[in-house]
Design brief:
There is one protein chain. The protein is of the alpha/beta class. It folds into 2 domains: about 100 residues, Urease, subunit C, domain 1, CATH 2.30.40.10; about 280 residues, Alpha-Beta Barrel (TIM Barrel). The protein is about 30% helix and about 25% strand. It contains 11 helices and 21 strands. The strands form 5 sheets. Strands 2, 3, 7, 18, 19, 20 and 21 form a 7-stranded mixed beta sheet that branches. A 5-stranded parallel beta sheet has the order 13-14-15-16-17. A 4-stranded mixed beta sheet has the order 5-4-1-6, with no helix packed on it. Strand 2 and strand 3 form a beta hairpin. Helix 5 packs parallel to helix 6. Bound molecules: zinc ion. The site of zinc ion has 5 residues, from loops.
Length: about 400
């Protein structure tokens, strides 16, 4: 048995911290969390000194197959599957080193995220959607998930379930990444989305919808999706929260996955339209947070230079800037994210019976969220990760 000692522990949910914790791990599972005191006989102690323990972080919206370059679509197109898998492995490993012990891949090509998971190695746990379901020439069509009509969308859901998907991802609107699509415009009718929801739920899978524009968000909410990605209220030329729709979201069980955070990239200049939009989005998410919409904090890792696969700590920082306090931000990347991903029974908490995915950081993230960027140790399924990221 392994005993991990540190200075403080946040269990993923409780406001009450554990001082001088001793986390007992048997194999890949946490069996007990104790305060200061003697370790039982026969326990091998890993003393992390002044470190602060938090649950392994969960990034519920990543794309391992996008390489965070300035042209992720072109870069992926230039890679065959073997080359793409190699790049995906590196991306996933960088996440693990940064304390992200579970990722949910919301769009790959050819089910490669599942292949990577099967190959195994020093990786986070990978929950995968496979190619996102989209309309003909719709957002991310090049990943291979084009469908038409109610029957087409149902068949696509079934195919993903058969391939071992953990979640269904459907593109309810266009997106920035795909030329010829428009983020503010819907891609599916509410009937088509509802067919996808019914099929996914019948197969025991959660379903999440990518939605930027108001009609797409409304359609996804009315169809009963479990989560909405982005939810940015984009219009043809800017973004504007719709108070009625925000209230409807707050009154629903649908969770919004706020794809936040950018790392500073020297020399990177955003086009003025995007820079203005990002400012607007902060305002919108302040309104969404204040209205009481259920939020988790995710990154959309991979889609550009400011969003590498180890950037979730920056997402948490922005979560505090849209009005969430530090404990809400921490829950939004641990226990709440686990629940939204339907792994809340095994992930996102440091408690007996949970998977021993544990991160040690330098500093107290409840008073300084940037402590999440100073990762001194990572345990994945009870085993130490060889090369934790350190300060970043
Ligand atoms: Zn995405």
């Amino acid at each position: 048995m392994l005993g991990i000692r540190a200075a403080w522990l946040f269990d993923g949910h409780s406001e009450t911290l554990v001082e001088r914790p001793l986390v007992l791990v048997d194999g890949s599972t946490i069996v007990d969390v104790r305060g200061a005191g003697e370790a039982p006989d026969g326990v091998r102690i890993a003393d992390l000194g002044e470190a602060f323990l938090v649950p392994g972080m969960i990034d519920a919206h990543v794309h391992l197959c996008f390489d965070s370059s300035t042209d992720v679509v072109g870069a992926l197109a230039a890679r065959d599957d073997a080359a793409a898998l190699k790049q995906m492995r590196a991306a996933a490993h960088s996440a693990l080193r940064a304390g992200i012990t579970t990722v949910r891949d919301l769009g790959d090509r050819g089910y490669l995220a599942m292949r990577l998971r099967e190959e195994g190695g020093a990786l986070p746990d990978i929950l995968a959607a496979g190619p996102p379901i989209t309309s003909v020439k719709g957002h991310c069509w090049f990943l291979g998930g084009e469908v038409q009509g109610v029957e087409g969308i149902r068949a696509a859901v079934r195919e993903r379930a058969e391939r071992g998907a953990d979640v269904i991802k459907v593109m309810a609107t266009g997106g920035e990444l795909t030329q010829g699509t428009h983020p503010h415009l819907p891609q599916f009718t509410v009937d088509e989305l509802r067919a996808a929801v019914v099929e996914a739920h019948a197969l025991g899978l959660p379903i999440t919808a990518h939605a930027h524009g108001i009609t797409g968000i409304r359609n996804a909410l009315d169809a009963g999706v479990d989560t909405i990605e982005h939810c940015s209220f984009m219009t043809a030329d800017t973004a504007e929260a719709d108070p009625e729709l925000v209230a409807a979201l707050a009154n629903s069980d649908t969770v919004v996955s706020a794809t936040l955070g950018h790392i500073p990239v020297p020399g990177l200049v955003l086009p003025p339209r995007i820079a203005a939009l990002l400012e607007k989005l902060t305002e919108i998410f302040q309104q969404v947070t204040a209205a009481g919409v259920k939020l988790i904090c995710t990154s959309d890792a991979g889609i550009g230079p400011a969003k590498p696969h180890n950037a979730l700590a920056y997402s948490a920082l922005q979560f505090t800037e849209i009005g969430g306090d530090n404990i809400a931000a921490l829950r939004a990347i641990t226990s709440a994210a686990a629940s939204a991903c339907r792994v809340g029974g095994s992930k996102g908490r440091i408690a007996a019976g949970f998977d021993a995915d544990i991160v040690a950081v330098q500093g107290n993230p409840l008073t300084d969220i940037t402590a999440l960027r100073r990762v001194v140790a990572v345990y994945k399924a009870g085993r130490p990760v060889a090369d934790p990221a350190g300060p970043q």
